[in-house]
Design goal:
Blueprint: H1 6-14, H2 17-25, H3 40-53, E1 56-59, E2 66-74, E3 80-89, H4 95-115
Antiparallel strand pairs: 1-2, 2-3
Amino acid sequence: ELYSTSAGRAILAALPEEEFEAYLSTRELLPRTDWTVVDKETFGKIIENARTKGYAEETQENEVGVRCVGAAILGKDGYPVGAVSVAGPVFRFTDERVESVGKRVFGTARIISYQLGYSTNGGQGGL
């Protein structure tokens, strides 16, 4: 499910707000681990944070012991067509490292997006 992975969250964050709200209204957020966020209000704040940063993160929400960061790849029209994600063991993937890697993942996703024809001058979705 998109809601429990950094790549999925990055894709959701890149959607126009109306599309994200439609997704959220049709899904029950079920726990995959004891750490999975299942409260929709909290989840909405997580997506807002991902939009601000340009990348999404999750810690042990999809798989115990794993922390991930991901950024959306945008197509020509600005809509997400995929994502780039990096995962690591939670004990090594510190907050500082997540921020550093997150910025690099965002940069990599942006390069791929540009190669696919994305431009910051147009489109309806995007970050």
